[in-house]
Amino acid sequence: MNNLFFAASVLFQSVLGEVTDQEVFNSLKLMGFGMLGILIVMVLIWIVIAVLNRVTSGKSEEK
Questions:
Q1: At 27, is the secondary structure helix, strand, or coil?
Q2: What is the pLDDT along the chain (63 residues), one digit of tens a residue?
Q3: How many Å apart are CA 61 and CA 63, to the nearest integer?
Q4: Per the confidence metrics, is the pTM higher than 0.85?
Q5: Backbone angles phi, psi at 27, to 5 degrees
Q6: Which residue from 7, 11, 36, 8 is spatially nearest to 23, judged by alpha carbons?
Q7: Where are the transmembrane segments (predicted)?
């Protein structure tokens, strides 16, 4: 009975060994953190560019 439960938790057999559902969920969690980090960096770069555009914009027009 114990072997049946263990076999049900294994999703597939790869070359490197058995892959369980917990390992898949852990890898998805890690991937989500990576995507969140990329999003945060992109927003920070956008904010820096917006601030630099406002600071360095020449509002005086030359005639």
A1: helix
A2: 455 555 557 777 878 788 888 888 999 999 999 999 999 999 999 999 999 999 998 776 555
A3: 7
A4: no
A5: -70, -35
A6: 11
A7: 33-53
